[in-house]
Amino acid sequence: MALLDRFGRVHDYLRVSVTDRCDLRCAYCMPEEGIDWRDSTELLTFEEIERVVSIFVQQGVRKVRLTGGEPLIRPELPTLVAMLRKLPGLETIAITTNATHLARDASSLKRAGLDKITVSLDTLHPARFAAITHRDRFAEVWRGIEAAIAEGFLPLKLNVVLMARVNDDEVLDFVRLSCERPIIVRFIEFMPFKENGWSTTKLISYRDLLQQISREFTLQPVESSSRSDVAKEYTVNGGLGRIGFITSMTEDFCSTCNRMRLTADGAIKSCLHDGAEFSIRDLMRSGATQVEIENVIRRSLAGKQERHAGIDELYQIENRTMIQIGG
Ligand code: SF4
Question: How confident is the model at residue 251 (pLDDT cuts 50, 70, 90)?
Answer without folding.
Answer: very high
